[in-house]
Design goal:
Elements lengths: L2 H4 L2 E5 L3 H12 L3 E6 L10 E4 L2 E4 L8 H10 L10 E3 L2 E7 L6 E4 L2 H12 L1 H26 L6 H17 L7 H8 L3 H8 L19 H6 L3 E3 L3 H14 L3 E4 L3 E6 L12 E6 L4 E3 L2 E5 L2 H5 L22 E9 L1 E3 L5 E5 L3 H10 L9 E5 L14 E9 L10 H17 L2 E3 L6 E4 L1 H7 L31 E4 L9 H21 L17 H4 L3
Parallel strand pairs: 1-2, 1-13, 2-9, 6-16, 13-21
Antiparallel strand pairs: 3-4, 5-8, 6-7, 10-11, 11-12, 14-18, 14-20, 15-19, 16-17, 17-18
Helix pairs in contact: 2-10, 2-15, 3-15, 4-5, 5-6, 7-8
Length: 534
């Protein structure tokens, strides 16, 4: 790279996976990269909570789309071998319903899942499951390149890039069809419709309002789910170390108070463009560009200064994604045969989402997800031994509007424990063995989010085009994270960091006499080699 670009300074604000990926790739290009993070370490939502002397993953718990990380690490001169050891899961998840003795396991192997569904709900449902997977695969293949890798797709660009096969795959779903409606065409057993409807919650949405395209999550899971030695937080720690190896400076416990722009008096034609950041202690860090890896609404709310309030459109409260109440627990369990990922359903699924999105309250009878983090298919937990669990119930993202105190959360906890007992799982939560996190806690950790864990809810087919992209209205300010395109989840947030880095490099190249080396991403797709990875 030309010396002129090596002199460029970039500040990355926020050490979530999107910010870490941007810092890694930009440092690889030789830029002077400083990453600042208010927390004591990296990870953002990929965080640990320490409970009874043990570290419990208290954020994302699923590692999928391994090809995304292979691509990013290859561009930085590393490989997935540099990540903590990954173990492919045979059982993707175990599902149970109140009042039903039978459980249903889904597997990474499609025929095995079909066989399990046949035993659970009959051979006709098994055949319909195969048809569902075929359609999910077509939708995933159609959207991977024109949506996931595009800097900021529009309806026109998507239509142009889909091609005849892609257009046919999406048209077959119907332009305004919800996920719930489509699932009704595939499954007659309401429990299966409920199980696969949960894919909407992976994007913080209701199955009744999410577009049918979210059925592609089925293909994501069939491509592989892995457990990570040390948990998902270890992935963030690894990216932080690799960024430092490439020359980035990472500063923790360093809160950014404002993103600074030129005022025109000294900036000339650069008026309104980024000139650096001001830290909470008053220190100013000059920068030719800034990557903001945080809640986009924090810019709108003025939490990063008045000069960047106009950077992105405001997100109304009603468009926020799901939040959650979680319990990080270390305790012994009995009864139900837990695997790593477990889902416990109530019978009235619609009521859960009406409570959250319409009534703006904790569900009176909500689904409970339990990640049993010590459960390994090769080494079972000893009976009676304490184990690490993360229990999660969906919640409205109103953490900036009310406290979610014990008067509200205690009944939710009692209902959740009652559901687990109703499915055969005996578990105890007490103050010494568990830590509760509410939407108000998430809002404090991620300001201006209201506790929303997935940015904007993916409601309606136009939601695909409404998230901010890597660029915004402030020249030199770039965005990364689960609140921007291509969306929530660790792989998508990582892709957003890749897109932000590529867009930033193009911006610097346009103001430099020399061209930088390209960063992989933007329009590329996974290679046949990575697509076939185990």
């Amino acid at each position: 790279m030309a010396e002129a670009l090596r002199e460029k300074r970039v500040v990355v604000v926020g050490a979530g996976i999107g910010g870490l990926v941007s810092a890694l790739l930009l440092a690889r290009q030789g830029l002077q990269v400083t990453l600042v993070e208010a927390a004591a370490g990296p990870g953002g939502k990929m965080r640990h909570q320490h409970v009874d002397g043990a570290a419990v993953d208290a954020g994302p718990t699923v590692f999928t789309m391994r090809w995304v990380f292979d691509q990013i690490l290859h561009a930085a001169g590393f490989s997935t071998a540099d990540l903590p050891p990954l173990t492919p899961l045979d059982v993707l998840a175990r599902h149970a319903w109140r009042g039903h003795e039978s459980t249903l396991d889904l597997f990474a192997d499609r025929p095995r899942s079909a066989e399990a569904i046949g035993r659970f709900a009959g051979p006709d449902e098994a055949r319909r499951f195969i048809g569902f997977c075929d359609q999910a695969q077509r939708v995933y293949s159609a959207l991977e390149a024109p949506y996931m890798h595009a800097g900021k797709p529009s309806l026109w660009s998507m239509t142009r890039d889909l091609g005849p096969a892609g257009l046919a795959a999406l048209t077959s779903l119907g332009p305004f069809t919800s996920l719930w409606h489509t699932l009704g065409k595939h499954f007659h057993d309401p429990r299966l419709r409920q199980l696969f409807g949960r894919y909407a919650t992976y994007c913080g949405a209701s199955p009744w309002q999410a577009p049918a395209t979210l059925m592609l999550v089925a293909q994501v899971e069939l491509d592989g789910v892995w457990s990570v030695q040390g948990g998902m937080h270890a992935v963030a720690q690894t990216f932080a170390r690799l960024a430092e190896r490439r020359g980035a400076t990472l500063r923790y416990g360093a809160a950014c108070a404002a993103i600074l722009t030129h005022d025109g008096k000294t900036g000339g034609s650069r008026k309104g463009s980024v000139r650096g950041v001001r830290m909470a202690d008053g220190e100013e860090l000059p920068a030719d560009a800034v990557v903001f890896n945080g809640t986009p609404q924090a810019l709108v709310n003025g939490l990063l200064g008045e000069s960047v309030r106009h950077a992105v459109p405001s997100l109304p409260v009603k468009k926020r994604s799901l939040s959650a109440v979680t319990w990080a627990v270390r305790t012994a369990t009995a009864g139900f045969p837990l695997v790593r990922h477990n889902v416990f359903f109530e019978n009235d699924y619609r009521a859960e989402f009406d409570d959250i999105f319409a009534r703006r309250r904790l569900p009176q009878a909500g689904t409970v997800y339990v990640c049993a983090q010590d459960r390994d298919e090769t080494q079972p937990v000893q009976p009676g031994a304490p184990e690490r669990l993360l229990c999660l119930v969906n919640a409205p993202a109103d953490g900036d509007r009310r406290p979610f105190d014990a008067l509200e959360t205690d009944p939710c906890e009692r209902q959740s424990l009652d559901l687990l007992r109703g499915c055969g799982l005996q578990i105890e939560m007490n103050a010494a063995q568990s830590q509760r996190t509410t939407p108000a806690d998430f809002n404090r950790a991620f300001p201006a989010s209201g506790g929303a864990l997935y940015g904007q809810a993916t409601h309606g087919w136009t939601a695909l085009f409404q998230r901010p992209g890597s660029t915004c209205r402030v020249p030199g300010l770039f965005l990364a994270g689960g609140g921007v395109h291509p969306g929530p989840g660790v792989p998508m947030a990582a892709l957003s960091g890749q897109l932000a880095a590529a867009t930033l490099m193009a911006h610097l190249a346009s103001t430099s006499r020399s061209r930088p080396a390209p960063i992989s991403g933007g329009t590329s797709t996974r290679s046949a080699t990575t697509a076939a990875m185990p």
